Amino acid sequence: MSEIEDPEVKGKKKRGRPGKQAPTTNKKPRKTPAEKAVGVARGRGKANGVAQHNGDGGDPVTLFEVVKLGKSAMQSVVDEWIESYKQDRDLALLDLINFFIQCSGCKGTVRIEMFRNMQNAEIIRKMTEEFDEDSGDYPLTMPGPLWKKFRYNFCEFISVLIRQCQYSIIYDEYMMDTVISLLTGLSDSQVRAFRHTSTLAAMKLMTALVNVALNLSIHQDNTQRQYEAERNKIAGKRANEKLELLLQKRKELQENQDEIENMMNSIFKGIFVHRYRDAIAEIRAICIEEIGVWMKMYSDAFLNDSYLKYVGWTLHDRQGEVRLKCLKALQNLYTNRELFPKLELFTNRFKDRIVSMTLDKEYDVAVEAIRLVTLILQGSEDALSNEDCENVYHLVYSAHRPVAVAAGEFLHRKLFSRHDPQAEEALAKRRGRSSPNGNLIRMLVLFFLESELHEHAAYLVDSLWESSQELLKDWECMTELLLEEAVQGEEVLSDRQESALIELMVCTIRQAAEAHPPVGRGTGKRVLTAKERKTQIDDKNKLTEHFIMALPMLLSKYQADSEKVANLLQIPQFFDLDVYSAGRMEKHLDALLKQIRLVVDKHIEMDVLEACSKTYSILCSEEYTIMNRVDIARSQLIDEMTDRFAHSVEELLQEAEEADDDDIYNVLSMLKRLTAFHNAHDLTRWDLFGSCYRLLKAGIEQGSMPEQIAVQALQCSHYSVLWQLVKITEGAPSKAFMLLCDLLMIFSHQLVSGGREGLQPLVFNPDSTLQNELLNFVLDHVFIDQDDESQSMEGDEEDEANKIEALHKRRNLLAAFCKLIIYDIVDMPAAADIFKHYMKYYNDYGDIIKETLSKTRQTDKILCAKTLILSLQQLFNELLQDQGPNLDRTSSHVSGIKELARRFALTFGLDQIKTREAVATLHKDGIEFAFKYQNPRGPEFPPINLAFLEVLSEFSSKLIRQDKKTVHSYLEKFMSESMSERREDVWLPLISYRNSLLTGGDEDHMSVTSGSSSKAGSVRSKKGRPPLHKKRIEEESSVEGLWMLRNDTLQTPGALQTPQLTSTVLRENRPAEHMPDPDSEPGSENDFMQMSWLGQQKMEEVNRKDRTGMNYIKARSNQGVRRGLMEDDAEPIFEDVMMSSRGQLEDMNEEFEDTMVIDLPPSRNRRERAELRPDFFDSAAMIEDESVSKTSRK
């Protein structure tokens, strides 16, 4: 309960400490019997956040522990302390003093004798000696969610303490004097932890006192009004007793106000004025943040130049963190319009500094400075000069998007806010416009022209997109401005303004259609939310419907202006072309094609012609029904141009040296048009190469051909050759692919093996671009759906034979590429795109993919595991793109990914020791992927990829027991404290994954040692193994060699460089490279580089624990066992397996290796396909003879 309810503590007590008192025998909630017997206060907990509990391991016993854990409501904690203060002030204050000492990370404890007999300076000096010099960390600087919560609880405790004590205890001239005196002494300490913690406590204490003072001021005003009202009554109705009570209450409130002011002055002059310029930036930031709170909370007392000057001076602080706090404190003040008169002098004095901070080297500071300048502008139009505004204007072109967006908001407030909406609407109505934004768009155009940065129109549009989106999407008003005719007495847009408006309009169309910032801003395309995707679709439909009708009119008006036409012709690429047919707007399509043809006839500038060619290419897309109509128009245009070109060439060649400028112009103009079109369209059937060749031949023979014609003829011939090459390669891409794979095998790094170092110059290693091309070819030609083929003529034997032959060819293509992966010619991570199709195409390619997985695991277990998890991540990303961030975890797609993960987990076999590091690395990559992207809606929502943990759970059974603990510890590094408490459905993947790591210890034991009980006898009888005791002796003598062999098998045969994954799906970051050191000796530390992560996690766990567990390992070391980094804390079960059961495990694996076949339903064509499975991975195998295919037809 609050102390306000106890009348015994009301009123003031004399200043000073009482004499010694006997230890109280009253029961206190957080005291143990031991403490009662000794008679000391709570507060003997360990420092540095190590909680001290009672002997039975029960609840925390110190105030520091209670606040740190935060399990109890802070008000109940404070009420308990107030109750103890009523019973014994010294012991309660001692508890509070030790609370501040322990919150600073000090190991020492202030005893009751020290508290009563020593001065604060002596106590602080004694506590300084108790600090842990080995560590610079203390609770306020420690990382992790627990300590972040502690900081919040620490501040809340002080605030609640003052609030609960505000009616009497803080006026007893004892508690507050003691606390303020202690904090003042600590804040002047040379120890940073003391100074930091006490400053934070003092500033929060001051904030709480300001709130008390504000309440007292309100009560005083109310009392004064009641007194005045009662005194103004006539004598007969006036109540003298009430007047006396009101006078007494006013006097008491004034005394309390004076007392609070004395406390605040002590804190401000004793702590703030020294610490706001402390050497530590965090301490300075605390002071500035809190003084901003005081000025906003109690502006009548604090919002004056005496306090504002500290904020103004700190605007020049050398640390961005402190400058940021200054700006945010000022933003809170300038947000309130009523405070502007009190800020006028400050604004005039520090305005120049604030404006200059918009160019701060710290982007966060610059953003907040721009926002503050915007608030100043909103409060007073005259506060900023034109020069001040211009300093902010140009920031809309900044490459840093947050800065540009903030500057765009300022620009919108200054220039684009309607000053007289009624007048603008009247003007729009008079001119016949549908929108009143005409003047604002004119102003935008003028600003763009005056900025003289015309090539950055896209940046300007992006800066204004969030604040002025309604204006920028007013394409109707823009079109009306461009199409309107001059009216007497009113100006129309100039030619320069029209060009600028068209450029801006095209940029707004692009921004709306693509829904992402222009190149150079942002870190790349992000996944759009459902709301953003809906807005994008709506905007695209809106702009399509408008410009389908408006674009032909715009082209008609500006067809003679090459710059305007080139920009306008970019608009169709952002259309939703289905609207033409769905809305029955073919007549507008005909109008557009007509205007484009006129543009082609009028212009020979390459940018205009290329824009026309690109527009035709977009409109001719086969996926749209308008393709036939556009193709006819295009063919007619090409026919006309080729006829005119052939005629012009004949005339030029006939006249030869007598050709005039007109003849040369005719040939050059037509050649430019045809070259521009030939770049995007296949014009092979018009045989342009023949005419170009004649021109080039005549130029060589006669030497009089103009250079421009020769260049264009060469360019056109180049395009003709390229298009013909495309046609040639389309006939036999599979043969070319097979030949290329075989050539890469022949001229790979294996060419120099066997003493053939002289052939080193012939070795060819494909670069990432070539590897990507090979991979894309496989994805496009191997993993294709055959539903249509299977449904047609199922009973036709000939058709069935054709299907088998086609499958045989596709299997050869896949095998050729997989062979490159196995022999380390193509980087192993490229196999992720192959592995992810394992389930879907199991009947067709399951044996090839499984063999590839087996061979790659033999090459490098860890990199193979990384490739497996990468393939699952790719499938998950594809699913995210299709379904959005809100996945349906019960869908068949998610179940398919989980099933694939389960099949991958089975391939790790039964020997968990061999695959230990690989499985741990797989979990590490999976956890990092799950927490890679935070939810844009806030930290209270799950990360976007969190559902991937449900897939990762399929591999938990492959972790041995001690590794589950390590992986679980690694998982907790990514989790906030709130995550572990969430139980909603969206957090189920995290819950299930944690459970999979926290359970199954016994199962791990069984999985590792099961061979000795169930299969050991039979295996030994088959293999002829020696007796167990003999084998134990042999293995104890050779276990070092086994570990050496195990490490050797982890080495990669060649340098593996991760390819750039450029398939059609979203790729993740490439796995880290594994580069073994060829100079390292066997068994050296370099041999364990690929196992470094698990080893580091284990070492971290060992360092956090007591070292008593090392005795067991020392005892085992006498047997000559050599261990890796990951075995420092191995359990006896694991060591027994390593020393006595390794042979049994090998026997068990040999027996199960052939039986661990994934059992899937048999294929309908399994019998026919059985004969199509030769050894695809023979390094000597080359492309198969055509006789194989002939045999399959028989």
Automatic annotation (TrEMBL):
Chief place where the protein resides: nucleus
Chain segments annotated as coiled-coil in the UniProt record: 236-266
Domain of life the protein comes from: Eukaryota
Residues annotated as domain SCD: 272-357
Entry-linked Pfam families: HEAT_SCC3-SA (PF24571), SCD (PF21581), STAG (PF08514)
Entry GO MF terms: chromatin binding
Gene Ontology CC terms: chromatin; chromosome, centromeric region; cohesin complex; nucleus
PROSITE patterns: SCD (PS51425)
Entry's Gene Ontology BP terms: cell division; chromosome segregation; sister chromatid cohesion
Subcellular location: Nucleus; Chromosome; Chromosome, Centromere
Bias type Basic residues, positions: 1020-1031
UniProt key word Coiled coil: yes
PANTHER family, per database record: COHESIN SUBUNIT SA-1 (PTHR11199:SF6), STROMAL ANTIGEN (PTHR11199)
Subunit text: Part of the cohesin complex which is composed of a heterodimer between a SMC1 protein (SMC1A or SMC1B) and SMC3, which are attached via their hinge domain, and RAD21 which link them at their heads, and one STAG protein.
Main function: Component of cohesin complex, a complex required for the cohesion of sister chromatids after DNA replication. The cohesin complex apparently forms a large proteinaceous ring within which sister chromatids can be trapped. At anaphase, the complex is cleaved and dissociates from chromatin, allowing sister chromatids to segregate.
UniProt similarity note: Belongs to the SCC3 family.
Record protein name field: Cohesin subunit SA
Organism: Sander lucioperca (Pike-perch)
